[in-house]
Amino acid sequence: MKLPKIAWVSLGVLFALASMAIHYEVKIGMRQHHGGSVTVMGNVKVGKPAPDFSLPDLSGKPVTLSSYRGQKLVLMDFWATWCGPCRMAMPGLQELQDKFKDRGLEILSINQGETAEPVRNFIQRKKYTFHVVLDQDGDVGGKYGVRGIPTLVLVNKEGVVQWLQVGYSGDDDELRQLLERLTKE
């Protein structure tokens, strides 16, 4: 069935409005930030316990956030393969993985809404070594108040949220300094 021209125009207008609303929410609506970070995202707040979850990794094994408690810092990256800013952020995440993995950092790359095969192909092609899990139905993203991707959430060894960032800024100095401090504790 061929859609009439008015339907295509309407879809285009809806897409533009949705894009503007998302842009507004990320850039203007979440103004409680400093250097790209925010203090509140939905029900998730810096200084409060991170909501627990369990998601399958690319091999189908369940990964539970609380299993890292008492052992590792966890940096969660909510992302998708189709997201340009997410792809731009990933080399920096790999650098953090390489620098801090042996100091107690676990990067959980939480893919939003995609199946294992395209995600696995992307990760293998780019040779990323961080742990990837699949949030196919977006429940965990919803639990964390993720409204735009990439979104980063840093949780300390006690399971408490330490840092939140929505969007890609290209400047990870604040995060690096925080990781330097927290990996020494």
Provide a descriptive summary of the structure in words.
This protein has 185 residues and is α+β, with helices and mostly antiparallel strands. The chain has two domains: 31 residues; 150 residues, Glutaredoxin (3-Layer(aba) Sandwich). 37% of the residues lie in helices and 24% in strands. It contains five helices and eleven strands. A seven-stranded mixed beta sheet has the order 1-2-11-10-7-8-9. Strands 3-4 form a two-stranded antiparallel ribbon. It has a two-stranded antiparallel sheet with strand order 5-6. Strand 8, helix 3 and strand 9 form a beta-alpha-beta unit. It is globular and about 60 Å long. The protein starts with a helix and ends with a helix. About 5% of the residues have low confidence.
Structure in a nutshell:
The protein is built from five helices and eleven strands, in the order αβββββββαβαβαββα.
Please describe the topology of this protein.
Elements: H1 5-29, E1 33-34, E2 37-38, E3 40-41, E4 44-45, E5 54-56, E6 62-64, E7 73-79, H2 84-100, E8 105-112, H3 116-126, E9 131-135, H4 139-143, E10 151-155, E11 161-166, H5 173-182
Parallel strand pairs: 7-8, 8-9
Antiparallel strand pairs: 1-2, 2-11, 3-4, 5-6, 7-10, 10-11
Biggest sheet overview: 7 strands, mixed
Strand order of the biggest β-sheet: 1-2-11-10-7-8-9
CATH topology value of the largest domain: Glutaredoxin
CATH architecture of the largest domain: 3-Layer(aba) Sandwich
Classify the beta-strand content into a percent band. 15-25%
Q: What is the average per-residue confidence, as pLDDT, rounded to a whole number?
A: 88
Runs in which pLDDT lies below 50 for 5 or more consecutive residues are 27-35
- Nearest-angstrom radius of gyration? 17 Å
Categorize the overall geometry: globular
> What's the CATH class label of the largest domain?
Alpha Beta
Task: Give the helix/strand class.
Answer: alpha+beta
CATH superfamily of the largest domain: Glutaredoxin
- Helix proportion: 25-40%
* SSE arrangement, N to C: HEEEEEEEHEHEHEEH
Give me the number of helical elements: 5
Tally of individual domains:
2
Distance between the termini: 62 Å
